[in-house]
Amino acid sequence: MSIIAEQLVRATLAQLEAQRQESIAIIEVYLANPTGVADHPNLVTDISSAVKALAEAEDAIGALHRNFISTEGAGNDE
Questions:
Q1: Max Cα-Cα span within the chain
Q2: CA 16 to mean position of chain CA atoms
Q3: pLDDT digits over 3-50, tens only?
Q4: Taking the alpha carbons of 57, 59, 60, 66 in that order, is the dihedral positive or negative?
Q5: pLDDT value at position 42?
Q6: Comparing C-alpha atoms, which of 14, 19, 29, 10 is closest to residue 52?
Q7: What backbone phi and psi angles, to 5 degrees, belong to 69?
């Protein structure tokens, strides 16, 4: 993999990890202090949205690892 490709994969992973961490933080705030978010009448919907964003980020991170990271240095003939 070229240097530019490696940088792009690392940047993409960093962005996805930030999305993952943001989703976790949102879920933890809602679960730990639901009275602090009283202005959110759709709390279950908001948590569900955060869980979906978390799953999407984790799936994308896994896809990058499976297809671009775990194969590096494994003797591929590419």
A1: 57
A2: 4
A3: 999 999 999 999 999 999 999 999 999 888 877 666 667 888 989 999
A4: positive
A5: 83
A6: 19
A7: -100, -50
